[in-house]
Design a protein that fits this description.
Blueprint lengths: L1 H28 L7 H42 L18 E4 L8 E6 L3 E4 L3 E3 L12 E4 L13 E5 L2 E5 L4 E2 L5 E2 L20 E2 L11 E2 L2 E5 L2 E5 L4 E4 L5 E4 L2 H4 L2 E2 L2 E2 L4 E5 L2 E5 L4 E3 L6 E3 L15 E5 L2 E5 L11 E5 L2 E4 L7 H5 L3 E9 L7 E7 L7 E6 L8 E7 L2 E6 L7 E13 L2 E14 L5
Parallel strand pairs: 26-32
Antiparallel strand pairs: 1-2, 2-4, 3-5, 6-7, 8-9, 10-12, 11-15, 12-13, 14-15, 16-17, 18-19, 20-21, 22-23, 24-25, 25-26, 27-30, 28-31, 29-30, 31-32
Helix pairs in contact: 1-2
Length: about 450
């Protein structure tokens, strides 16, 4: 502080001399005599008072500024460390389900689907918010209790299983839903030979000359001159004089019952029974009747290269390479595996400023003949710069199957308007435009590719 005060005193003396010279020069220019010594002293005293006042104000401003800087330094010191990862935490894939979407940046969405036989409980879609947290609740895939509809008829007991159910039938009934009476075969044959043992039952068998696996010899017994013959489960008695048991073709007999088809995909008749098969890309479930998709991407059963995305589909997979658009006078850079953003435009390039600000790519897999109408995808603005958002449906293969509707001020929905018979690949583009007083601020394009399975499961 002392050097500062000394320098200020020196400056004051210099200003006093200069002020005296200046006053004399002013009077000389006005053709007047230089003021007296008393007048000069009065003028100098007034100037010194003014200077002292300015000096005090200046010092007070410096002290106030120093306090503010100290307070700002303390507040910055107390701030939590800036997170290194500016993404939302990774979301788990629900058991017996799948997750669509891998981008974890704010504004991006993740969608969830459940396998056949399970229903989604929770949020179908979750969005990464600016606070780096997810909207909605983590969903789970709950096993559908097929026994709630009481599918087992005629007193049968239902047991819920994964992706299906099984019926324990009451006596006298058979079939997947106990819908068919059990055949009871009694063949009455008069025996003319004397009964052995004074009327006691005697076993008798018939020779079987057939060697086919679908034929069996009946089990017969004689009681008081009458022969009773029965067959093993899965066979019915036939042939001349009811002397042979023939396999029952369950695939034909129970093709469509009260609980639907015996097999979800294909049925193969076997000796005394049947087995269900699934197409390539599926495994037979534990109940032996339904089919479950194989996740080739999750189990690494694919041949996609490092620069490709592996998209799991129902019954297979797709290797997709995302490339940024080529637009005249505009350049794009990939900011995530599925998003491209436009580089800054020159100030005089109108064509560049009219190009999309960003282009996002999303891929989905659905079953054939999915019921409609239903919401397939949502596009939302995390934060708005303008006063209006507009949503529009642009070109693409399969555009006739879709329309766009608004669910709220900041969200547009892609709506499937009619079922699609697979196999098919549909492309559709959704545009979100942001405006301020009807002036375009930015365009954001979302390109959605939908892979439709050949099957309804």
């Amino acid at each position: 502080m002392y050097p500062f005060n000394d320098s200020m005193k020196m400056m004051n003396r210099r200003y006093t001399v200069l002020l005296s010279v200046f006053i004399c020069q002013v009077y000389t220019m006005l053709a007047q005599d230089c003021p007296s010594k008393q007048d000069l002293q009065n003028s100098i005293q007034q100037a010194q008072k003014l200077l002292s006042s300015q000096e005090a104000s200046y010092m007070q401003s410096l002290r106030t500024l120093r306090k503010k800087l100290n307070l700002l330094h303390d507040s910055v010191t107390r701030l939590p460390a800036k997170p290194k990862n500016l993404t939302c935490p990774n979301l788990d894939t629900p058991v017996n389900g799948r997750k669509l979407g891998k981008t974890l940046f704010p504004g991006h969405e993740v969608h969830f689907l459940c396998d056949v036989g399970y229903e989604l409980v929770g949020s179908e879609m979750r969005q990464c918010k600016d606070s780096l947290s997810w909207s909605g609740q983590q969903p789970v895939c709950k096993d559908i209790d097929e026994c709630l509809s009481s599918p087992c008829a005629n007193g049968g007991t239902c047991t819920d299983e994964v992706n299906g159910f099984s019926c324990f039938c009451a006596k006298g009934w058979a079939g997947p839903t106990c819908q068919s009476p059990t055949p009871t075969f009694f063949v009455s044959i008069m025996n003319t030979s004397p009964v052995v043992g004074g009327g006691a039952a005697a076993a008798s068998s018939f020779p079987l000359t057939h060697t086919s696996a679908f034929l069996r010899q009946p089990k017969c017994s004689q009681v008081q001159g009458t022969t009773h013959c029965t067959c093993e489960p899965g066979f019915t008695i036939s042939g001349r004089e009811n002397s042979v048991c023939t396999d029952i073709d369950e695939c034909k007999l129970f093709h469509n019952g009260q609980a639907g088809r015996l097999c979800l995909h294909a049925c193969v008749n076997t000796a005394g029974g049947y087995r269900c098969t699934c197409p390539a890309g599926y495994n037979v479930t534990r109940d032996g009747r339904n089919c479950k998709d194989i996740d080739e991407c999750g189990s690494r059963q694919n041949n996609c290269t490092r620069d490709q995305l592996c998209i799991n589909t129902y019954g297979g997979f797709q290797c997709v390479k995302v490339e940024c658009p080529q637009i005249r006078n505009a350049t794009y850079v990939k900011t995530s595996p599925t998003r491209c953003e436009r580089n800054p435009c020159p100030a005089d390039s109108r064509s560049c400023s009219q190009a999309p600000n960003s282009v996002s790519y999303h891929h989905m897999s659905v079953v054939s003949n999915l019921s409609a109408p239903r919401v397939i995808f949502r596009v939302s603005a995390v934060r708005m710069m303008g006063d209006t958002l507009r949503f529009a449906l642009l070109g693409g293969r399969g555009r006739r199957y879709f329309t766009v509707q608004r669910s709220d001020r900041q969200t547009g929905e892609l709506l499937l308007t009619s079922p699609v018979q697979g196999p098919a690949t549909l492309d559709v583009e959704v545009e979100m435009s942001e405006l301020e007083r009807r002036e375009l601020l930015g365009r954001y394009i979302t390109k959605i590719t939908i892979f439709v399975s050949p099957y309804e499961f």
